[in-house]
Structure formats: structure tokens, C-alpha cells
Amino acid sequence: MLNCIDNSGAALVECVQVLKMKRAAKVGDRIVVVVQKQRNLGAELTGSAAAAQKVRRGDISHAVVVRTKKKYGRPDGSFVRFDDNACVLINKAGDPMGTRLNGAVAQELRGKQWSKILSLAPTYI
Question: Are strands 86-90 and 60-67 parallel, antiparallel or unpaired?
Fold first, then answer.
């Protein structure tokens, strides 16, 4: 289970497959996810708020892993570990579904050509 940190409408997603790999997903990997829990936008969804919900519970989508609890090493010898596992939902072309990200992302995304996600993130570590 991963937290979804964008404003696409998903709050919690489950990874069902890591694309092009036969191992656990790392930061920057593209995965296939199923939306388990929707983000709560209030008691009543009006026209514009309902349109902002791009995904529903049970939808299958692609995502990019942006934070992991498993610590990993960097070339300078330091180790990085986050408090949770998090992802950002993307479409088939690789563009983020949401327009805003909540929370920090790993700077390893730059080396894996996910600069659009880095540009939306408030901070990267």
C-alpha cells in the first residue's frame, strides 16, 4: 500500500505490478496500481469538485514511486529513508494526473527523467 500524494482524487493505492522489472519497486520505478481509498473532499461534491476527482475507487492506473521506507544509498555515501511509501499517479504518456503534490519527493527522480514530477513538488530531498 502506498500513499498517493497528488490531487488526482486517490488517497491510498495498492501496487499490483512493477513494470519492466522482476523485483520490488524503488524510487523512480513505474508501477501499476489499484485505487483503494478516495481522498475525502467534503460531504457534498458539487460540479467543479466532482470534476476534480480524476480517479475513483477500484480504478487501475499507472504511478511513479517517489518515496520509500526502505533506505537506499547515494553515490556520496549518504543513506536516505522516508517515513512512508508514496507515489504519484500518471497517465499512459507519463504526465502526472494531478496538478499539485503534497510533501517531499526524492531527488533520484531527476536521474530517471521524471522532471515533470520534480517541478510540481514543493521540495525534494
Answer: antiparallel
